[in-house]
Amino acid sequence: MKYILILLAIVGIIASTLALREHYRTEGDSPCSINERWDCGIVNHSPYATLAGIPVAALGIIGYLMMAALSWRRAYRLLLAVAAVALAFSLYLAHIEAHILGVWCIYCVISLADISLMTLLALGTAIARRKPKQSH
To answer: What is the value of pTM for the model shown?
Structure first.
């Protein structure tokens, strides 16, 4: 499971890096500007693309690096806690895209699917690895 979770973290790092590139793009069309409902440029230049002045995509990179490290160490319960917080934040951002901006970012959707899968796998692994209670 360790290597699957690390691979998923790498997918998240790639998606977050591409979103960060869009955040700093100043000229030219976004390569993921598909139509009026799918445009990473609009999403990544919106006021919701930063948190305390830090690009959300950069926070994603840091989060996925942390989750890769926790996976490497097989710290699945701590990974589950981090992944659950990341999933909650990603769902909040999806709400912003759907109900406030009305535009979706393909990189963000990939990240949401990725963190959802990581959370489920971390939950399953944490449950499977829990220690049975000792009977006296």
So the answer is: 0.89
